[in-house]
Amino acid sequence: MYDSVISTDMTQLFLKTKTAGYYMTLNANQLLYSQLFSNAAWVKTNCTLTAGQTDPNAGTEAFTLTATGANATMLQSVVLTDGTLNRTLSIYLKRKTGTGAISITVDGVTYSVETTSGAWARYDTTLAASGTVTAGIKIATSGDEMYVAWAQLEDGGTASTYATNTANRYTVTQITDADYPSNTTRGCAYLDGRFFVMTPEAEIYQSALENAASWAALDFIGSQNDPDGGVYLAKVQNYIMSLKEWSTEFFYDAANATGSILSPVQNSAFQIGCASEDSVKEMAGTVVWMGRTKEGFGRGIFRLNGTAPEKISTQMVEKIINADSLATVYSWAANVGSHMLYGLTLTNTGVTLVYDFSSQLWAFFTYLVSSGVNKTITAISTAGVVTATAHGYSDGDIVLIASTNSDFNGWHVATDVSTNAFTIQATGTAFSGSGTATKHTESYFPVSASIASGGKQYMQHATSGALYEFSQSVYVDPIGAIAARVRTPKADFDNAKWKTLASAELIGDKINSVALLRHSSDDYATNSDFRPVDMDANRSRVRRLGKFSRRSFEVLHVKNALLRLEAIEIEGAM
Questions:
Q1: Is 454 or 394 the better-scoring residue by pLDDT?
Q2: Residue 278, by phi and psi: left (phi above 0), alpha (psi -120 to 50) or beta?
Q3: Pair 510, 535: CB distance under 8 Å
């Protein structure tokens, strides 16, 4: 697994595994296939190419560019990585035939007419540009021919020495400096022009200023408060955060003249460490992680509030994370609408826990796996009552309905179950024929990491490694069917007396979907039957919920669409 951080001037991307470091730099020449104009990266309009022509160094890398129509062009679009700067296009040209105008461009709009001759010369033009630009050459007159070779687009106002570029605008180089640590923890950081990594001994090393390739043996700082081992290195605000086995420390840039530039932030350390390096997520200006303390066995999920830990896990969540071996853990983050989500997957337990910072609710995200057993459906009533002989389903089973009609095909939860029938959360035109119902079981949400780019968020599939969009309308839809469960803590309203519940209302987005609600009075050892709640209704609620002393609720939603819950509002006689 790679950790990465980019320098603020966007000139270097630092990447690392636990045993090796790399840095990626943008090539000076930002054109792809800068001397292979026949490649599809170069878009040719009203012109043809002939390869194998003599280049300026007496080789055969030049091309003949022949205009087959007026204003023939050979252009390449480039996405620039920073703001508005001077950009310079340079290219070698030699007149073959004709006398028409030859011009070159940085942006595909502003052209510079060049005076060419029968001898090779390098021509260049400079323009302040940003965003996506389209650089190249234009031949004004049909039939004119030019020899062309070695194009270069670069930042700055002058053309530098030509550098060949092929399929990538970036170069990745492994750090070979002997002073770079041979073994590091998860996480890396960038602060005030330097890159930082931490060793398992909790020693924090720094790179040279704006140079990820250079490291010094004495430029490090070790633990200042507790001698426990390092687990994860993060950055929050202008501090470096050292998450260790049983404690956490913060450091700031003290501009020390020798050794590390870092010094400890006084009175900010605390006695909560990190139970799993892969649980850590730097997100929305804070850090979220699975913490633990030396005193006894007990894990919790914490977020950083300033430089202080704030527990966000509930008793239910803590029961789950304390029972897991932590053999394989994934964490991810996403901002959906106004809701910031933190996801934690425990593959041994087979569950993904998701915390919504807006509603402060925990949910379960699960992936639906087919049982491979199809049950025949002979009828579905207008009210969604399904006839399927000896189906064997129980209340709350998730089924995929197929080969019926558009009103009923899709994902549902079986409720009101009898031997030969069950009810689904849909109404429509009655069906009669031979459809199928396939039970699905729930496994963990198959996502191992998240990333944001271009205003969109992407999730990485834990097995295939493929990226899928995670947006307001789609929950990683190409992966498959997704289920979400929200469980509330037990509520007793400050007394153990018996109380009567009149109704429970789901407060959240109004969407064309049905959620399922059930309750438990014994910490989910047993549950009531699920009852459907129309999320598009004016009041999304169910009534007549009986007596209770202490009660928890569970909401189940099975649909690849966003359901954002704010609260469960209950009404009754206390």
A1: 394
A2: alpha
A3: yes
